[in-house]
Structures are given as C-alpha cells and as structure tokens.
Amino acid sequence: MVNGSLLASKVHAEEGAAEQSALVMMRLLAYDRNIADRTPGQQVNFTVVYPAESTPGGIYDALVDISTQFQLDGRRVNVESVDHRQFEESKDELESSAILVTEGLEDHNEQIASWGIDNSVLTFGQSDQLVESGSAIGVLPNGDVKLVVNLRLAQAQGADFPGSVLRTADAVHR
Hints:
alpha/beta, 174 residues, globular, single chain
C-alpha cells in the first residue's frame, strides 16, 4: 500500500505524462480525509469519462496500472472507463468516488462537476480548459505535472485535504 506522504515527492523523470498524472491523482486521493465517507462499499471506484467518439487513452491504462499499488483508507482501487454517452445514461447508478474528465468534454464539464457536487464525487481534469470549466482538481501534464486545486469546488464535492497537501499545489483557487 502506498500512502499519501508521497504526494510531494518527485515522480521519476523517465515516466510518461500519463503515468505521472495517474500517480499524482492517486496520491492526492490518499490524502482526502473524506474518502471513506465518499466511498460506497469496499473499493474506491475511479471513473474515466471520455468523448464518445474517442477512447479513454493512455491515462486510463496508467490509472489501471498504478491502482494496483494503492489502497485508499484500506480499500482497493478500481478504475473503470465510460464514454460520455454511457455516463449520461448510467450516472444515477454510478458508484464512483472520483471522476477524471478527459479532453474533449469541456462543453459537458460543468454538468459533470455539478453532478459531482450532488453525489460527493471529486472531479479531475487534465487541461486548463477543464479546470476553468468546472473540474475541482487539475492535474496538468506540462513537462512536470502541474497541480491546480479549486478548493471551494473540491470541498463542495466532499473532499477534505490537509493544508500540507494544498501547499504542494502549483495553484489553489479559493
């Protein structure tokens, strides 16, 4: 089991952007003091939502690979992917603790973020546009991974991060 104390440590330079981003997301979830309250059942479900006309991409594979190294609050991590149409059709049955909204869904991100508030699901995005359009956490692969936290939205979605974690972020919007 990997714990959250690794968030501030540097990711190996030889790892790709997807692997770096996946590792930062898992480390950040490890620090969420409310992960148990936001997690139904015995596993943490992390859902990747991607445009219907594409694939979830390398970030999904990286999250699946890295999830085997993590337990969050004693729960194993399950990573799944759904295209945006499937998400819209099945979101009322979805039991996720976190969602990654991939590029190409900027026009839908505000609705997904609102759903995250209603269902205590933390939303992540991987571009400046996704962060601006409503993702609570931005994990931006720009060489080194840049971490951006919309604190008000993250809290509205049920997350609670200690100040020490917020100080490691590149930007915290309050």
